[in-house]
Amino acid sequence: MGNANYSLTLEDNFLTHFFFYAARYPQREACIFQPRGPETAITLSYEALNHKVIEKAKFLVEQGLTNKPVGLLFPTGIEFVVDFLACLAAGVHAVPMNVTKNSKQLERTLAILSDTGVNTVLTTSDTKILVGSLLEDLGEFRWIDACGSVSVTTTLPTIGLDDIAFIQYTSGSTSAPKGVIVSHRNVVDNQRAIQTACGHKQGLIAGGWLPQFHDMGLIGHMLQPLFLGGTYVFMPPLNFIQRPIRWLQLIDRYRIHSSAAPNFGYEHCTKLIKPSASLEQLDLSCWQVALNGSEPIKAATMKDFATQFAAQGFSEKAFFPCYGMAETTLFVSGGPKHGGMQSLQLDRNALAKGKVSTSQPSSTNADSLNVVNCGELSEHFQCAIVDPDKLTRCADNIVGEIWLRSASVSQGYLKQPQTNSLIFEAAIKGEGDQYFLRTGDLGFVRDGCLFVTGRLKELIILRGKNIYPYDLEHICNGYSHAAGGNGASVFTVSDNNTVKLAAAVEIKKRALKEQCHDAMRRDLTQRLAEGAGITLDYLLLLPPGSLPKTTSGKIRRGECQHLLNTAPLQGEFSH
Asked: Which parts of the sequence belong to the AMP-dependent synthetase/ligase domain (predicted)?
């Protein structure tokens, strides 16, 4: 399939782009997977990938799976690439899921299978053995772990732009994970938005360690280079977690131009990568687009990373803070390319009242807050900052809910018509019947750039002040005895009908064992008072790994309150 002489148009879907490049550059490397060291790398050309995709797609058609949801349960690898693209070509509604035996993350996989009504799962034989018995409570599944022979007469269906491409589940940080229905139009529009914003060219080399079932890894790392006839280079996420230098070595070895990570990824590198001969040999000058998104972006993390790896050729100008979500397929704003990290120093007291006012450089930490610029709004999006209660457009320099219109905005959530009418069909009062997506995020626009201040559902209003949990959690994570990463949660509890402010902070195991707990509480309380002018009512110290998180590492604040119920038994509760 595909015609090397064909000219791509705006009406072509993602598959047309892939087949076009497979015909034009059959021997070009489409995928490079490095499961362990470089000697284990597996490479697939466009010709080989194209052949595998078409064979598997025809097999899926023959199995009667067109227009049906099918689970994709794969460890990181080439198999996921083949089967996901095959689902697109066969008109199958792919549902990417996480392979895990972790009880908390397995609950998410079980919830997805139950919600979609999936009864067929594409997987590998090893994965079936690993997790098959864990899914028995949901009934019988049809497991497909190989591609049988197909008839030469089998044809693939015609794919329309408004047909369903796949179902991407949200992280579920503020509610139960929801299935976002992503169309082929959504996919191709967002691919163009990413390409334009990042300045990506034909033949792009992109990739890294992000999970393939996660929207940032799927849309940004895997589909973007294949959309541009480039090369997708990747490794298992666990390899990065164990030794973060492997990510940088992957970038150097394959001369990766564009690679993304949440803020945690860059922080993980600065904390665990130490001076060594291996580090000295790295050349990161090829890394021109270093996207940072998917969770709150910290200016200090990017500055530390740029300083630590400047000798390896990394430029601070490569940083590309960005914003997006599954409901918009992925990307909304970012850049510009080579713009680096930019931020605003805001008056904390004004922000607590929902107003945007820059603070003086001499202001103390308690008086100011640094908010990172999430980049220029894509030309593919129309953005409005709206009062979430009055549903009217906010005046300039007022924080409101971010509302979006775009061909990238998905068709809605699976099986949730009432929620869809509220979230995907929102209208600004007095401005007609144009529908917007309510993102649930708070922020403002300045000079065409988007600044995100927090989540509407997570905003804490205490004694007439707006408190942004991320800000306080960042201060807690900076404490010397804190486990770091994303190991702090700030939330409210009700005590005798009074709202109180609480925090749970993961502490290094050694510090929990050797340091005075009361002294650590005093230190943390003082840091919050000096850094944000906030006084806690409750502070809980926890061992690493105690906080409830999503599969992408986001805190589930709504589940943190139950931690206080067991705290007295641990001797960790402070009032």
From this structure: 22-414
H/E stretch holding 404: strand 400-406
| Cβ-based neighbour number of residue 83 at 10 Å | 27
pLDDT in tens, the chain (575 residues): 666 666 778 789 999 999 999 999 999 999 999 999 899 999 999 999 999 999 999 999 999 999 999 999 999 999 999 999 999 999 999 999 988 767 667 778 888 888 998 989 999 988 888 777 777 666 678 889 887 778 878 999 999 999 999 999 987 655 677 999 999 999 999 999 999 999 999 999 999 999 999 999 999 999 999 999 999 999 999 999 999 999 999 999 999 999 999 999 999 999 999 999 889 999 999 999 999 998 889 899 999 999 999 999 999 999 999 999 999 999 999 988 889 999 999 988 888 889 999 987 655 566 788 899 999 999 999 999 999 999 999 999 999 999 999 999 999 999 999 999 999 999 999 998 899 999 999 999 999 999 999 888 877 877 667 787 878 888 888 898 998 777 899 888 777 667 788 889 999 999 988 888 989 998 998 888 887 778 888 888 999 988 888 766 677 777 777 777 666 544 444 44
Residue 110 maps to which CATH number?
A: 3.40.50.12780
336, part of any domain = no
List the domain range (segments joined by +) for residue 88: 28-268
Same domain, 147 and 57: yes
Residue 337 lies in a domain: no
User: Could you tell me the CATH number of the domain that includes residue 415?
Assistant: 2.30.38.10
Q: Which segments of 176-244 does DSSP mark as H helices, in order?
A: 184-198, 215, 224-227, 237-242
Beta bridge partners of 441: 455
Buried b / exposed e over 385-414, threshold 16 CB at 10 Å, is bbbbeebebbeeeebbbbbbbbbbbbebbb
- 503 with 410, same domain: the answer is no
